[in-house]
Specification:
Blueprint (H helix, E strand, L loop, with lengths): L24 H29 L5 H39 L1
Length: 98
């Protein structure tokens, strides 16, 4: 026997979407990919900056450059992604109200 609830007359129709503050799935995936791509690019830039300035055994400084570059740029892209997702949510809310 199925344990699924039966719809009552007060339930919203299946065509109405429930209110949610979550942005669309595609927007969240794009934001995640941009953060990852930004972190990779920042790591490469950090590595290149240390590689240009260091001579000899530079494994630890190169690792620090990769880590710090990736961390800073991923955090920056995270801030930008959150702002963009919020703007999309507000834009969608304004369109729904009209």
């Amino acid at each position: 026997m199925s344990s699924l609830p039966t719809p009552t007359p007060n339930d919203p129709s299946p065509h109405e979407r429930p209110l949610s503050a979550l942005p669309a799935r595609g927007a969240r995936i794009a934001a995640f990919c941009s953060i990852v791509f930004g972190g990779i690019a920042g790591g490469l830039i950090g590595y290149a900056l240390v590689d240009l300035q260091c001579s000899g055994a530079c494994d630890v400084p190169k690792g620090i450059g990769v880590f710090s570059g990736a961390t800073v740029t991923a955090a920056g892209m995270g801030v930008v992604a959150v702002l963009v997702l919020r703007a999309l949510g507000e834009w969608k809310e304004l369109q729904d109200n009209q």
